[in-house]
Design a protein that fits this description.
The chain has 293 residues and is an alpha/beta fold. The chain folds into two domains: 77 residues, lambda repressor-like DNA-binding domains (434 Repressor (Amino-terminal Domain), Orthogonal Bundle), CATH 1.10.260; 197 residues, Endonuclease, Chain A (2-Layer Sandwich). Helices cover 48% and strands 12% of the residues. A hairpin with a 2-residue loop joins strand 5 and strand 6. The relative contact order is 0.12.
């Protein structure tokens, strides 16, 4: 088992998360040495902005750049240096979703890496069933609805990526998924009646899983706290990864990690969980919907 720079087991979140963790380690070492980003960039024949991107985990790392920076930052301990170099190698490995790279934008690939590393995923959905709980046919209908006229092979790549993401719920020590879904999303016949029936049945099976909690936000409640629409909260086991809010819009996504912003969304999520139906009733509610389809 490989080790993180802090001496524990390396996280299993894939290259995206490893880059963030490595960047955070390098930032701390640079600041401890009293070196500016500009000086660090000059030392590796780059710019201060590249150092900034490295420290945020937004670029891949050259092993030579890391070893040069460690030398410049005064890291002399061979064991500490080797741990960081090993982390660099792991961060540069090809993630499983790389084969779908052409099917999804860069901003979504970042999300896939974070989702895979999360310990807790709390999600509010307005229009669709959460992606981690979608059936293949439902996912296909969502993709076709969002991008009419898309090449059939492209559609299947996007569907395959979504199905691949769902494996995170089946891995050893899976994250806890706590989803609150608007009643409208559960009644909207994406793909037609048969697709919706199979999707509701999938949700009825999912709520039996120990790591899945599903609540319904009923029509009768009227207005509620999430007037801003769908969003997701992710919590990670690594101290260097802060809680994060993820929200999509038509051409991209927002990743919020400032504590005050995250706290506001967490408060909204708590209010939604109180307003939604009891998780103990979800299977009963889904069964009733199934009879009405």
């Amino acid at each position: 088992m490989s080790l993180s720079p802090t001496g524990g087991a390396a996280p299993a979140g894939g290259p995206t998360v490893l880059r963030i963790l490595l960047g955070a380690q390098l930032r701390r070492l640079r600041e401890s040495a009293g070196i500016s980003r500009e000086d660090a960039g000059y030392h590796i024949r780059a710019s201060g902005s590249k150092i900034s991107r490295m420290e945020l985990g937004r670029v891949s790392f050259k092993e030579r750049d890391v070893t040069d920076l460690l030398e410049y930052y005064g890291v002399r301990d061979p064991e500490e240096r080797e741990k960081l170099v090993q982390l660099t190698r792991e961060a540069n490995q090809t993630p499983w979703w790389q084969k779908y790279q052409e099917a999804v934008p860069d901003w979504f690939q970042v999300f896939v890496g974070l989702e895979e590393a999360a310990q807790l995923i709390r999600e509010y959905e307005v229009q669709f069933v959460p992606g981690l709980l979608q059936t293949e046919d439902y996912a296909r209908a969502v993709v076709l609805q969002g991008t009419p006229g898309l090449d059939p092979e492209e559609v299947e790549r996007r569907v395959a990526l979504r199905m691949g993401r769902q494996q995170v719920l089946k891995k050893e020590n899976p994250p806890r998924l706590w989803a609150i879904v608007d009643e409208a999303a559960l009644r909207r016949p994406m793909g037609g009646r048969d697709v919706l029936v199979a999707q509701i049945e999938r949700l009825m099976d999912a709520v039996s899983e120990p790591n899945v909690t599903l609540q319904v936000m009923p029509f009768r409640y009227g207005g509620h706290a999430a007037e801003g629409g769908a969003f997701m909260l992710m919590r990670f086991p690594e101290a260097d990864l802060p809680d994060m809010v993820y929200m999509e819009y038509l051409t991209g996504a927002l990743y919020l990690d400032k504590p005050d912003e995250v706290e506001r969304y967490a408060a909204v999520m708590e209010r939604l969980s109180v307003a939604g139906t009891s998780p103990d009733r979800t299977r009963e509610i889904l069964g009733s919907m199934l009879k009405e389809i």
